[in-house]
Amino acid sequence: LERTKPALDLTELFNGFQPLFQALSPADVNRLSGEIVQVLQGEGGTIESLLAHTGSLTSALADRDRVIGQVIRNLNSVLDTINTEGDALSTLVSTLQRLVSGLAGDRRAIGEAIEGMGTLTDATAGLFELARPPLKQSIAELGGLAANLETGEAELDRFLTTLPEKFTELGRISSYGAWMNFYLCRGLLLTDPPQGYTPDPPPERCTR
Predict the structure, then answer these.
(1) Residue 145: which of 134, 156, 160 has the closest Cα?
(2) CB distance 53 to 34 below 8 Å
């Protein structure tokens, strides 16, 4: 009994490979585990081949050491930035939380507004459908109006040129109130036989 040695603890053996297993793909882990079991059971392979396979996997991980280091440095930069902008990030999160809470509180009103917009869209579409034929006719008539304006271009230009003067005259006859004053400033009466008359000076309102 004193010379008896305990059996090999496979769990402890495989736990020693945990750091390697964590960096390998599931297929590589299964392959390596199978080779270990085969070697221990004497079913095939040798310790040398097992160590060679393990060495190749370790070399592959070593080749990726630079990439892993770069990823870690990038993560450190991200964490430093988050740490530096901690207050701003906290404010942003708080603001977003208040925004989401406000939207959640007004969800019924927002839903009703969206439903109302849908109803308005349907009504507007129907209105445009009804107004399309008259609008098409009006656009066609605009072509005739443009042709008439081009034909009477001289008269239209003269009217627009004298329009300020006409407005001035209208302002004079309506300057006494909300009405317009009209006066007969000149008249000619023919009699037979003609008789002479003495002209009177015209009133001020007829000289304006």
Answers:
(1) 156
(2) no
- C-alpha 157/C-alpha 172 separation (Å) is 24
CA angle 118, 124, 129 (to 5 degrees): 130
Q: How many helices (H) and strands (E) does the chain have?
A: 8, 0
Cis peptide before 194 (omega within 30 of 0): no
- In this predicted model, what pLDDT tens digit does every residue of 40-98 receive, in sequence order? 665 555 556 656 666 666 666 666 667 667 777 777 777 777 677 777 777 888 888 88
| pTM strictly above 0.70 | no
Rounded CA gap, 56 and 59, in Å? 5
Tell me the C-alpha distance between 8 and 3, whole Å: 15
